[in-house]
Design brief:
mainly alpha, 126 residues
Length: 126
Amino acid sequence: MKDKALSVLTLFTSSGTLLCCVLPAVVATIAGGAAVSSMLSAFPFLIPLSMNKGWIFGVSAILIAINGYIVFKPNQEVACDVEAGEDGCEVTGRFNKQMFYISASVLVMGAFFAYALVPILVYFDL
């Protein structure tokens, strides 16, 4: 149960990277700067999120790394509920791995938009 809670927590923290960095970048790409300014006036909490993106990415990366260690650690003893049987263990294991992959993908996508997209665009003079 503790592993499942950590998986869900990592998904939510990595989703914060989407809010702070990916959403404004995608809106700016599709609709332009005027759409971003109206979005920021409607959702002003995005400004402090973007200003603290280093902390958001750092905490997300640490939580995802801890989750990855827990999910993929070698020689782990699986503690399963006796009443749930082996099917419960397999379902929980698959769920934790899926949540890990989703969280890591969201973090990588957010990091790309936050830190790599602008330097790439500047390099290619776009």
